[in-house]
Amino acid sequence: MVKRNVRGGKPSDYPRIPFHLLRTAQLLSSATVSAIMGYFMYFLKKEHYNIPWTFILLLAVSCFTILALTITIILYNFTFLSPRFNTVLNGGLSVLWAVGMGMLTWSIASSNVLAKQCSAKVWSGEAQAGVCRDYKALWSMTLVGAVSTFAALALDIHTWTKTTKRGAYVLPEDDKVALKKKAPVRGGRQEGFEPTRDVHGQGSMMFEQEREMDIGYHNRYGADEAQAADGAAQGLMAAKPHP
C-alpha cells in the first residue's frame, strides 16, 4: 500500500499551509498567463504578424511552471520531495519569471496600458478595450507568478536550511559492520583473515612416513624371525641322532 507523503516513514519537511498556498498561486497564474499567451499568439499568427519574444518567453515559463508543479506534487504525495531539488527548480523558474516580467513591463510602458481605463471611449472600440483588459490581466498574473515563485524559492531555502541544521547523520552500527566487511584492507586481505593451511597435505605426509616406518619395522622383524627359525632348524638337525 502506497503511503501518502511518506518515504521510509519520513514525512515532508515543508510546512503544509504555506507550501500549498504558494503552489496554488503559481498554478493559477501560470494557467492564466499561458491561456492569454495562446490567445494572443493564435490571432497574431492568423493575421501573419511576427510573434514577440516576450510572448514566447512568457508562454514557455508558464508551461514549465505547470510541468514542474505536476512533477513535484507527485513526488510530494507518493515518495518524498527534497527541498534541495525543489530549490533548483524554483530558482530556475524565478529567473525566467523575472526576465519575462521585465520584458512585458518594458513592452507596454510606451502605451500606458496599465494607467488608462479599459473602455471603448478611451480605446476607440470594444475590441481595443478587450485587448487592454487582457494586457492588464496578463501583467497582473505575471506579477503574481513571479512573486509566488520567489516566495516558493524562499520557502525551499528555509526548509533546506532547517533540515541541514538538525545535525549530522550518524551511521548505524549494523551498517558500519556491513561496510567494514565490504571495504578493502591494505595488503589485499581483510582484517581477521587467515590464509588456509594445507592440513590435508601435512596429514598425508605424516601418514606416509608412519606407513614407511611400520613397513620397515615389520620387514626387520620378519627377517629376524626367519633367521631365528633357520638357526633353530640347524640346531635340530645337529641334535638329531644318526641311525
Biggest beta sheet attributes? 2 strands, antiparallel
Helix proportion: over 70%
Instruction: Order the strands across the largest sheet as they lie in space.
Output: 1-2
Discrete helix count: 7
Q: Looking at the structure, what is the overall shape? A: elongated
As a percent range, the share of strand residues is: under 5%
Query: Radius of gyration, Cα only, in angstroms?
Result: 47 Å
Q: How many distinct beta strands?
A: 2
Q: What is the chain-wise order of helices and strands? A: EEHHHHHHH
Look at the structure and give the mean pLDDT.
78
Structural class of the helices, strands and pairings? mainly alpha
Oligomer: single chain
First-residue to last-residue Cα separation: 119 Å
Secondary structure topology:
Blueprint lengths: L5 E2 L2 E2 L4 H31 L6 H26 L4 H26 L11 H4 L2 H39 L8 H10 L16 H41 L4
Antiparallel strand pairs: 1-2
Structural features, described:
The protein is mostly helical and 243 residues long. The chain is 73% helix and 2% strand. The protein has helices spanning 16-46, 53-78, 83-108, 120-123, 126-164, 173-182, 199-239; strands at 6-7, 10-11.
